[in-house]
Amino acid sequence: MNKTHHINFKGTIDKFGGAVALISTPGDCAIVSRGVPRTLVMMCPDGCGETIAVNLDRRIGKAWRKYEQSNKLTIYPSVWRDTGCRAHFIIWNDQVLWCDVEDGVRIALDEKFVETVFNNLSDSQFIHFETIAESLHAIAWDVLWACNELVKRRIAQVANRTTFKRIGIRFSAMPINGRIDISV
Ligand SMILES: [Zn+2]
Asked: Ligand 1 centroid vs 4 CA: distance in angstroms?
């Protein structure tokens, strides 16, 4: 199987079957939208040939968040198939970032953005990185990776049960549903 590292966005359409008809090669995807985005339909990017449906509609349960910046698609959190090929990947700015690589996801960080995230941390309480992303109107991945970098530099601290009461500039890197599995 050949893993692809890019998605190919084929368009937005109002019916699921129509979206499926638009995708044919690994990484192809289309969005089903009726008033609001409902589903991201994707040909599995690992080349197994299966079709993946990612729910984007919060009204019908657990939903992934879709971002579009400069016409590039990002989905949060990661997609992790619990059947079949078990592919686990992140769609970020039209790229497919594989989560099973040994070194984790490596993305060049924008130093200015890292600084902005730092300035939005609190020295008195933990803030979830998704909350920071909301207030900055930024992609949750970008904030998470910036937070990980700040931790690596030892100027931010991850919340967990044992460190929660310590003083420091902190963020919470706890995934919202256990589907994030990256180490930067
Ligand atoms: Zn697959």
From this structure: 11
